[in-house]
Fold this protein.
Amino acid sequence: MASVLVFIDVPGLPLPRASRELLTIARSLGKPAVASPRALDGEALQALGEYGVGTVYEPADALPDVLVAAKAAFLADAVRAEDPAAVLLGNSFEDREVAARVGVKLSSGVITDAVAVAPDLSVTKSVLAGSYTSTCRVQNGVPVITVKANSVEPVPADAPSVPESRRITVSDAGPAARVTGRTEKRVSGRPELSEARVIVAGGRGMDGDFGPVEDLADVLGGAVGASRAATDAGWIEHSAQVGQTGKTVSPQLYISAGISGAIQQKAGMQTAKVIVAVNKDADAPVFEIADFGIVGDVFSVLPQATEEIRKRRS
C-alpha cells in the first residue's frame, strides 16, 4: 500500500483538529506517514499512532529560524526519503507557502484549498468565491495538496500503530534571512479561526463594539471573525479578518453580524455549511448566500440569541 505523507507542525498535545483531519484523509488514501519539523516526544508519537501513522520524519538537528524556508527544505527531503503517493498539508498561510516551496523543489504540482481528496488523488475544491466546484488532479511529480479545515470528521484508526521515528539531515536550510524576535499572540481561549467549527463575525455594523459578537461566540464555543472594514478601523486585530485578503474559513456554522456581504467577504466564508446573517438592511448582499437571515439590529438580536442559548444550556 502506498504511503501518504502529512506535514504536521504542532508545538505539542492535543493534536489540532485540522491535523487529525489530515491524518484521517491520508488513511483513506494509503498508509499515513508524518513529517514534523520539530522533535516529538513519546506522547505525541502515541497520539499520531492512534491515527494509524507508521513513520514519523523529524530533522536530525533543530531547524534554523528562517520563517518557512527551512521547513520546506525539510519536507522536501522527507518526501524524497518516503517517496509517498501524495503530500498533504493544512491550508494556513504558512502551510500554503511551504507547499509552494516544496512544489518548486520537487518539480511537483500543487493544489490548494482542497475540500476532498479521492482515492485516485483527484481533488475537489471550490473556486471563484465558492461560485463553482472544480475537480482537478496533479499531472507532474508527487501531488502536494493543502486541505481546508472542517473538510472531514476526524476518526482514529481501528488498530493503533507504533510509529517509527526517522531522522533527516536537511540538505538546504534556506536563505540567510532569519527571525530576530517574536511577540506572543494574545491567548483568548477560543479556537483558531481557520479551524473553528463555529464562527461569529462582525463588520462595519458593529460600530466598534465587538462585545455582542464575542459573547455569542463564547457561548457557542466558537471563534470571532471580522470583515476588512472592521479590522482596518482598528476595532479588532487583523488576524481575525475573513475574506479574500484575510483568512478563508469553512466552518459548520458561520454567523455574519453587521456585514454587508460584499464579494471580498463572500470569498472567505461562502463554503460554510450553514450561514446565518444578521443585518438591519434587508437588501444587504449577504442575504443572497445566507441559509437563514434576520433583518434587525445586531445590538438587539445577538444579546437575545446569547441569552436564549445560555438558558437552554443551563
About this structure: The mean pLDDT is 91. The two ends are 50 Å apart (CA to CA).
